Amino acid sequence: MVGPDQPRKVIHVDMDAFYASVEQRDHPELRGQPIAVGGSRERGVVAAASYEARRFGVRSAMPSVTARRKCPGLIFVKPRFDVYRSVSHQIRSIFAEYTPLIEPLSLDEAYLDVTENLKSMASATEIAEKIRARIRVETGLTASAGVSYNKFLAKMASDEDKPDGLFVITPGMGPAYVEALPVGKFHGIGPATQSKMEGLGIYTGSDLKARSLSYLQEHFGKVGPYYYWLARGIDERPVSADRVRKSIGAEATFGADIFTPEEARAVLEPLINKVWSYCESSTIRGRTATLKVKFSDFRQITRSRTIDDPVASRAILEGLVFALTEPLFPTSQGIRLLGVTVSSLEFDSAPRSGRQLLLPF
């Protein structure tokens, strides 16, 4: 049983530049080259970038034209989501040999609770090392891992030594690690919340820790207590293998505002791909499609459409999203963010031609 004398042992595994790394593995001529998965030279957005491209400042969700400007030699590669799902399933099978407590976050990352594991191994660090070695041998890919006593710190640790790294934050290190962390680095704190915190004089975990619970509740509402405990290195959320999702979504903020329906459709394509990829791999379907729009003045709106039967294909989802997009144009107000969400979820029990369904990593 987990308690003060036996802290939880959590591993966060994050594949390194997953989509791009798969493409470089399968196409030797792309190895060592700056590549962008998704988009094109003239339109669309980058779904993933290789580390060679990231050195030029290319990032996921960046408009293709911006990425091309930053890296003139950038090679655009069409995504192959069936391949990514298959590799993801292969990796998750490795996880399952060590623990049944696996919480997938996406195709390329997951939390594992190895406090009581199937190998009866005492060291979570050793388990993480073995998992990373297995992934390398069996898939030809690299993964970074973070090991700690809760989900927040395990997630933070996995970012410390990328790519192909392993970082451990022990219970003795946790509080001091969080105190020294800039709030902008906190997983779950986005640019808007960071700006609000800095406006209140909160720049680091130490500053956050100095604020009372009532103060954080007053300024941040129901998430205030979460920030209060995070500042102390405490995160009681369990690794939930059977967590129930209320929605599936993806969004992107653009380096330059968009003004035309053509631009909107181009940037929505990879978001629709990402949402549908999760729906298909997890056998979850939804009846409600929602479009999130944030304008250049930070005004935000959402538009939704619900149909009688669950969305059965990517084409149907795309049609719903594009229909929600049409009334936005023409517009004189630039759009800085678009998001796609599917909700009213249920499991699809229909057989899929007898093939094994791939679960998300």
TrEMBL record:
GO terms for cellular component: cytosol. CDD domains: PolY_Pol_IV_kappa. GO terms for molecular function: damaged DNA binding; DNA-directed DNA polymerase activity; magnesium ion binding. It holds the Pfam family IMS_HHH_1. Mg(2+) binds at residues 14, 108. Its cofactor is Mg(2+). The active site is at 109. PROSITE patterns: UMUC (PS50173). The record marks 19 as: Substrate discrimination. It catalyses: DNA(n) + a 2'-deoxyribonucleoside 5'-triphosphate = DNA(n+1) + diphosphate. It is found in: Cytoplasm. Monomer. This is DNA polymerase IV. It comes from Tautonia plasticadhaerens.
